[in-house]
Write a structure and sequence with these properties.
Elements (H helix, E strand, L loop, with lengths): L4 H5 L15 H9 L13 H7 L9 E4 L6 E4 L16 E7 L4 H13 L2 E3 L2 E3 L3 E5 L5 H14 L3 E5 L3 H8 L8 E5 L4 H11 L3 E4 L3 H13 L5 E4 L5 H16 L11 E3 H5 L3 H13 L4 E4 L4 H14 L12 E5 L8 E5 L2 H14 L3 E6 L6 H6 L5 H11 L9 E4 L7 H8 L4 E4 L7 H6 L2
Parallel strand pairs: 3-6, 3-12, 6-7, 7-8, 8-9, 9-10, 11-12, 14-15, 14-16, 16-17
Antiparallel strand pairs: 1-2, 4-5, 13-15
Helix pairs in contact: 4-5, 5-6, 6-7, 11-12, 15-16
Length: about 450
């Protein structure tokens, strides 16, 4: 970025209105300098500032939003090649393909699986983000009918996939207000599909055979007035996919080549040949390097779950530990006589402890203390898992109201705080020392 945040700040209105999404104009200027915001987000910027800042303040990779409301999917907007340089912000959107030549019963079953295949993890609900309706039948009426069924059954963001403008137009008529992504403008249909996307005000994917072809189509779309573009270089092999995705990111970030400054889309099913294991491999490659959207063939746990976990790890800030929401967790249907265990909100610690409690089959309560994502021992060293924090938390969370027998089990690694906890809680509580290792929790609980 040629201009610094302070230089950009001089061109802003400096009203600190907050309408751009950040509280001050200086913070907005810093985001512009880092390529994390667009000048158009400021409603009061002058025409002179627009002319002077222009491309200087635009992110190297455009942030494209597909869909509307809480189900909108934002892709692109990244500013680094490697996660350790800063972090990745906008996770790869996972789409599931719905072919319009499927029987109605299979469409309904697939929609039900799409809605139901959601995994709770670390205070999140993980699942697929988009539905890609593919025009396999070649019939505009059938394509529109399937799009209509999807719209009626799901609030997920949509991708309309067809090779002819009349098919896309038929599908778009059923979901224009949902702001779908049109896929795709090609060398054969570019004029008609670009015109359709511009008319509808929706994002457009361009699909070309290789990097030069897809860049030429992107330039054509931009010249026609479109801003929200997604690139699909249509790889034929996995190795080619890796090279293309990496090259596009490098051209955008290192060379500031605006022809490649857009998020990308990868149809993993096209490279898999019906092999689920290979499709997972292709999709995992796309998530790591650097697809904005990956289209999968089906809603299947063995296909989706490993990709969701991979994406969660990659799009988590490496400088910030993953945290679980603090509070009371019920495991194995606890009663008023059940013991109460306590741990930190470092997600790995939570999952280890809760998993071992569940494996013990002993009804138990688990309290999760907010330690800013630190483990138990690290939290103790930082003064966040000590008697002065554990005792007040146990009182505040209200677990005592659910108990007739009050037993609190501390992690063995912090047995030293037991006296302070007893003093904080009072004589009505029995403070016990649990095992040092989570793996010893099941026999410990069975012995209580």
């Amino acid at each position: 970025m040629a201009l610094t945040g302070i230089q950009i700040f001089k061109f802003l209105p400096r009203t600190n209105c907050g309408e751009c999404g950040v509280p001050t104009c200086l913070a907005f200027a810093m985001n512009l300098a880092a390529g994390k915001a667009e000048l158009s987000k400021c409603p009061y910027v002058s025409e002179e500032a627009k002319q002077k800042l222009g491309a200087e303040s635009a992110p190297p990779i455009r942030l494209v939003e597909i869909g509307t409301g809480e189900n909108a999917v934002s892709v692109g907007g990244e500013t680094v090649l490697f996660r350790h340089e800063k972090t990745f912000f906008h996770k790869t959107g996972l789409a599931v393909a719905f072919d319009d030549d499927l029987p109605d019963g299979e469409v309904a079953a697939k929609l039900e699986r799409f809605a139901g295949l959601v995994y709770p993890r670390v205070g999140l609900r993980l699942g697929a983000d988009l539905i890609a309706v593919r025009a396999r039948s070649g019939d505009p009426g059938r394509f529109a009918a399937v799009v209509g069924r999807v719209v009626a059954a799901s609030r997920a963001s949509l991708i309309l996939m067809a090779d002819k403008a009349e098919l896309l137009r038929a599908g778009l008529a059923k979901c224009r207000d949902r702001r779908p992504l049109l896929h795709a403008a090609t060398a054969a249909n570019a004029d008609d599909v670009i015109a359709l996307a511009k008319e509808a005000g929706v994002p457009l994917a361009v699909r070309g055979e290789g990097l030069e072809a897809v860049a030429a189509l992107a330039d054509k779309a931009v010249a026609a007035g479109l801003k929200d573009v997604v690139l699909d270089p249509a790889p034929k092999r996995l190795g080619e996919c890796l090279v293309q995705q990496t090259a596009i990111r490098r051209f955008a970030l290192w060379q500031k080549n605006r022809s490649y400054g857009f998020p990308t889309l990868l149809v993993a099913a096209d490279l898999a040949g019906g092999d689920v294991a290979r499709e997972v491999l292709v999709a995992a490659t796309g998530i790591a390097k650097y697809a904005g959207i990956v289209v999968l063939s089906d809603v299947r746990g063995e296909l989706l779950f490993p990709l969701l976990l991979q994406r969660l790890n990659i799009y988590t800030d490496p400088q910030r530990p993953m945290k679980t929401d603090p509070g009371i967790y019920e495991i194995n249907k606890p009663t008023a006589e059940s013991p109460v265990l306590i741990t930190s909100n470092f997600s790995l610690t939570y999952f280890l402890v809760s998993g071992e409690i569940e494996a013990s089959r002993v009804p138990s309560w688990l309290l999760v203390l907010d330690t800013d994502g630190l483990s138990v021992l690290t939290g103790w060293a930082a003064g966040k898992f000590v008697g002065d924090t554990v005792g007040p938390f146990v009182k505040k969370v209200g677990i005592a109201d659910r108990l007739t027998r009050k037993r609190l089990v501390l992690p063995g690694a912090v047995a030293v705080i037991s006296g302070d906890v007893e003093e904080e809680l009072g004589s009505q509580w029995e403070v016990l020392i649990g095992p040092r290792e989570a793996s010893n929790i099941p026999p410990y609980l069975r012995g209580l």
